[in-house]
Amino acid sequence: MKKLSREVKFLLSLFAFRDVSDLFLGTFFVSFIMQLSTNEIVSVAQYRLFEYTATCAGFFLFANWCKRYNKVAVFSLNLIPKIALLLAIILLGDTAVEYVIPLGMLYGIGSALYCLPTNTMIGEKVDSKSMSVFFGAKNAIKHATKLIAPVVLGYFIDLGSYNQVAYFLLGMSVIELAMTLNLTSSRHRSDSPVDFVGFFRCMLRFRVVRHVFIMESLRAFSMGLLGTVITMYTVYMFQTDLNLGIFTTLFALCSILSSWVTGRYFDRRTWPMLLVVCMFLMIGGLAIFIWKTTPVTFLIYSFVYSTALIAIEQIINVKMFDLSQSKCISANHKVEYFVFRDCALYIGRWVGFTGLMYVGVFGGYAWLRWYLIAIAVAMLFAGLNAYQLCVSKRRNK
């Protein structure tokens, strides 16, 4: 099994810093919106919907920078909107819930500046033989941050306020900015501007490329929406940010184990079998929760979510980056590939959170559990797409 390079390990440490701030701006800020909003489902949907809209728009706006200039410099710029968002939370206080749309857009712009150069750097710095190990380590680190950070964040939020935690994250952002100075610039730069028309022709030429984009749209609708729904149900059923932190930490242990086992003991030959098992577990756990929505069935489903779903997502991520290194995607079209891939994610998320807003307006939590059926169906088809990619011949190699 191939080891990761020193620079890739350093990149993983930067991801850990980002994971902590995402816990606050994603999970705990969703809890903050729910506690102060008159219709929490609608407000959370608006926050997420405009976040993803800004992220998708940002991918198109910043694509040329990533293709023609230093990706590390573009990566460093993601800290500017993040710092602005933290300052807005500090200055607005409890009234921040009235500005979920602009705050969501600010978060989305920062995500675009973070995700687009990150995706291209991963494609350049991690070879295909190490990709499975890399994502196993990346996911394990991501969930390791949830062992302590959620409980600490939840404890201090319950004792003090979101503002105090935002001050702490501002300090972390400065450290993160200093760390980016140690990253080396990318190997590949292009003298030509982005060519979306050329890449679209690539999609028409290679069926596997279209297959991946369908898979990503379904994944964004199902798996992308589930994280927010679980956060909402955790707050709804267990009330406090401290409880939210405790349960987030508890299931992070399960996710770490799942990520490590998937990356260490499963390879491309055994992925189809693993996908089938995980899909059955996910559908079964979700069916139990829909049938009888109680704290116990929710905890059972959360356990399945934190193990089976993590394995499925890990496999899908590796397949998506495998394609970026194949003959289907030329070195001059890698940025376009990740922009179009994010468009696929945006389509799925837009449909999902628009539906969530509809549920919030007309049905509330009584309808929310039935909306999970649509999520389960999309999840099943996303898993089937991944299965087909795993068992098919590697025509793209």
Fold and architecture overview:
With 397 residues, the chain is mainly alpha-helical. The chain has a single domain, classed as MFS general substrate transporter like domains (Growth Hormone, Chain: A, Up-down Bundle). Helix content is 83%, strand content 0%. The chain is built from 14 helices and no strands. The chain has helices spanning 6-36, 40-68, 71-76, 79-92, 100-125, 131-159, 162-180, 196-205, 207-238, 241-265, 271-291, 295-324, 334-362, 365-391. Helix 1 packs across helix 9 and helix 8 (196-205) crosses helix 9.
List keywords for this structure.
mainly alpha, globular, disordered C terminus, 83% helix, Growth Hormone, Chain: A, 397 residues
Number of domains: 1
The CATH C-level class name: Mainly Alpha
**What letter string, H or E per element, gives the SSE order?**
HHHHHHHHHHHHHH
Class by helix and strand content? mainly alpha
* Total helical elements: 14
CATH level-two architecture: Up-down Bundle
- The CATH topology assignment is Growth Hormone, Chain: A
Q: Give the biggest beta sheet.
A: none
* Mean pLDDT across every amino acid position: 78
Strand residues, percent: under 5%
First-last Cα distance: 20 Å
What's the SSE blueprint?
Elements: H1 6-36, H2 40-68, H3 71-76, H4 79-92, H5 100-125, H6 131-159, H7 162-180, H8 196-205, H9 207-238, H10 241-265, H11 271-291, H12 295-324, H13 334-362, H14 365-391
Task: Sum this structure up briefly.
With 397 residues, this protein is mainly α. The chain has one domain (6-391): Growth Hormone, Chain: A (Up-down Bundle). It has helices at 6-36, 40-68, 71-76, 79-92, 100-125, 131-159, 162-180, 196-205, 207-238, 241-265, 271-291, 295-324, 334-362, 365-391.
